[in-house]
Design goal:
Layout lengths: L10 H16 L8 E4 L3 H4 L4 H6 L4 E4 L3 E5 L5 H10 L7 E4 L8 E6 L11 E6 L10 E2 L2 E7 L4 H16 L26 H12 L5 H4 L8
Parallel strand pairs: 3-4, 3-5, 5-8
Antiparallel strand pairs: 1-2, 1-7, 6-8
Helix pairs in contact: 4-5
C-alpha cells in the first residue's frame, strides 16, 4: 500500500516564498499605457494658433482608453459635470468622475494664484508623461493636472474649466478661431459653450490612426 507523505520545505525556503508572495501582493500595480503621442497633420494644425504651432512643435497627447477618469474637489463636482457634458459626443472618450484617491487620468485642483508673473492666468493644464519619440515610447502612461484659480465667478469658472478640459482631451494648443471656446483669450467675442465644430474636430483627432512613422521623423536635440 502506498503511503501519502507531507513534504516539508526547508524553513528558510518556505519563509522566502511567503515573503515574495506578500511583496508581490502589496506592490503597486504597474502603470499601463493610457495615451499615445501624435503629431497632428497639417490640416489639423491649421485649426490651431499658428504662433503656438511654431513655438511648440512637439507631438501632443491623446487618450487611448475608452473611459478617461477625472476628479475634482467635492464642491466643484456639479460644475465639472456641466463641463464634461460639453465635450461628450460620438467618437469622443467617455469621462467618468472618480474619487481623487483613485489615481484619476485628469485631476482638477483649485489654487489661489496660478502665476505671480501672469496674474491674468485663469486656468492651466499640464500633462505629466514620458518623453515623446524618439526619446520615449509611442504609447505612454500619462496624468493631466488642471489648476483653476479660486477668484472666479461661478459662470467664469464653468467657462474656464470647460476650456481647460478641452486642452486635457487633446486640444493642446489654442484654436485659431477667436470665437471658439478653445480660443486663447476669454473675451466677449468667445462663445461660452463648446461649438459643434470643436467637438467634431476633436472626434477627428481621435479617429486618426496611431502612427509612429510621423514621430520618428522628428529629431530632438540631445539632452544636456
Amino acid at each position: 500500500m502506498k503511503a501519502w507523505r507531507r513534504t516539508l520545505l526547508p524553513g528558510w525556503l518556505a519563509a522566502a516564498l511567503v515573503c515574495g508572495l506578500l511583496t508581490q501582493a502589496n506592490a503597486a500595480p504597474e502603470a499601463r499605457p493610457n495615451a499615445d503621442w501624435i503629431a497632428y497633420p497639417s490640416w489639423v494644425l491649421a485649426k490651431f494658433d499658428s504662433e503656438e504651432n511654431r513655438t511648440d512643435p512637439d507631438p501632443m497627447l491623446r487618450w487611448q482608453t475608452p473611459v478617461v477618469t477625472i476628479s475634482a474637489p467635492a464642491s466643484r463636482i456639479g460644475v465639472l459635470r456641466e463641463a464634461i457634458a460639453e465635450w461628450q459626443g460620438p467618437g469622443l472618450p467617455r469621462l467618468r468622475i472618480v474619487d481623487p484617491e483613485r489615481d484619476p487620468d485628469i485631476a482638477v485642483q483649485d489654487v489661489q494664484v496660478l502665476s505671480r508673473r501672469d496674474p491674468d492666468m485663469l486656468g492651466e493644464t499640464e500633462p505629466v508623461a514620458e518623453d515623446p519619440p524618439p526619446l520615449g515610447p509611442p504609447t505612454t502612461y500619462a496624468t493631466v493636472s488642471i489648476k483653476m484659480t479660486t477668484g472666479l465667478s461661478p459662470a467664469e469658472y464653468r467657462i474656464v474649466l470647460t476650456h481647460e478640459l478641452g486642452h486635457a482631451l487633446g486640444f493642446w494648443r489654442h484654436a485659431a478661431n477667436p470665437h471658439w471656446l478653445m480660443g486663447a483669450e476669454l473675451s466677449s467675442e468667445q462663445s461660452p459653450h463648446v461649438s459643434a465644430a470643436e467637438r467634431a474636430l476633436l472626434a477627428q483627432l481621435y479617429a486618426l490612426p496611431r502612427s509612429t512613422q510621423q514621430l520618428a521623423k522628428k529629431r530632438r536635440p540631445p539632452l544636456s
